[in-house]
From TrEMBL:
Name of this chain's protein: BtpA family membrane complex biogenesis protein
NCBIfam families: thylakoid_BtpA
InterPro entries referenced in this protein's UniProt entry, alphabetically: Aldolase_TIM, BtpA, RibuloseP-bd_barrel
Superkingdom to which the source organism belongs: Eukaryota
Protein family per UniProt: Belongs to the BtpA family.
Length: 278
């Protein structure tokens, strides 16, 4: 928790804005000679987050559908994400942490990008216990991932880990509660645990939040479904929230960022923080 506070500062319930980069070269949705427009969009969205003073930024290759498992992620994805991450890091103020996620379950790839781009955290899937995602079976990776982090001298990069990852079946671990999963991640040296709804844009349930709040020693993050209308439900329970869909036009992750949505959300957060300070 101390490392988290050192990186993110003292604001209550940190706001991490998502940058969903356009489909990258080599993936089905990549457009012919679209690389320059991808770069320009990333620059624009990073500048927008800078202006509205979010507490952190997370870069993700969400448009690379259909995803492949980590063993099939190509060198071109790592190269492109590194270039884009360095652009974002150059725009976002040095005191504002930036992170990266590489789908699907490209946790080592993300660590390599973070190391090369001076990022402060990654979002990792499949950290403890196995699950079945829409891209196939994913095994747990904590031991291998943290050994890799040690190997490449990236121990200053925090690893935030999804619990019972969305878009996945957890039937084989149905007898393991969310809290037990979080405790396992904590025992396996996770730097923070992420709770989500069942799909992108779906809110984490109040039951799930109650099951974890105050019961884990590592930071608790909410990774989907937070909006201006429900941020108050999470504000006193979560150490940080990751906002993707709500910041887009029509609340659709496929769309571009809607500046008015970011502005309205951050205004609501400022009011909550002011009330908290009083």
């Amino acid at each position: 928790m101390q490392r988290f506070k050192e990186i993110f500062g003292n604001n209550k319930c940190k706001i991490i804005g998502m940058i969903h980069v356009n489909a990258l070269p080599g993936t089905p949705r990549y457009g012919y000679r679209a690389w320059e427009s991808t770069i320009e969009k990333v620059r624009k969205e990073a500048q927008l987050y800078k202006e509205h003073q979010v507490d952190g930024v997370l870069i993700e290759n969400m448009h690379d559908v259909p995803y492949v498992r980590d063993q099939k992620i190509g060198a071109e994805t790592v190269a492109c994400m590194t270039h884009l991450a360095q652009i974002v890091r150059g725009i976002i103020p040095a005191e504002t942490p930036c992170g990266v996620q590489v789908l699907a379950c490209g946790n080592k790839h993300a660590l390599a990008v973070a190391k090369a781009s001076d990022l402060q955290f990654i979002r990792a899937e499949g950290y403890v216990f196995g699950h079945i995602g829409d891209e196939g079976y994913t095994d747990s990776c904590a031991g291998e991932l943290l050994r890799y982090r040690k190997k490449i001298d990236a121990e200053d990069v925090m690893v935030f880990t999804d619990l019972k990852k969305k878009h996945s079946s957890h039937a084989i671990t149905a007898d393991i509660s969310l809290l037990e999963t979080a405790k396992a991640a904590e025992f396996f040296l996770s730097d923070g645990v992420i709770v989500t709804g069942t799909a992108t844009g779906q809110a984490a349930s109040s039951d799930d939040m109650d099951a974890l709040t105050g019961k884990v020693k590592v930071p608790l993050l909410v990774g989907s479904g937070v909006t201006k209308d429900n941020i108050s439900d999470y504000f006193d329970k979560a150490d940080a929230v990751i906002i993707g869909s709500h910041f887009k036009h029509n609340g659709n992750w496929l769309e571009d960022i809607d500046e008015s949505a970011v502005e309205g959300f951050m205004r609501s957060v400022c009011k909550l923080r002011s009330g908290d300070e009083k």
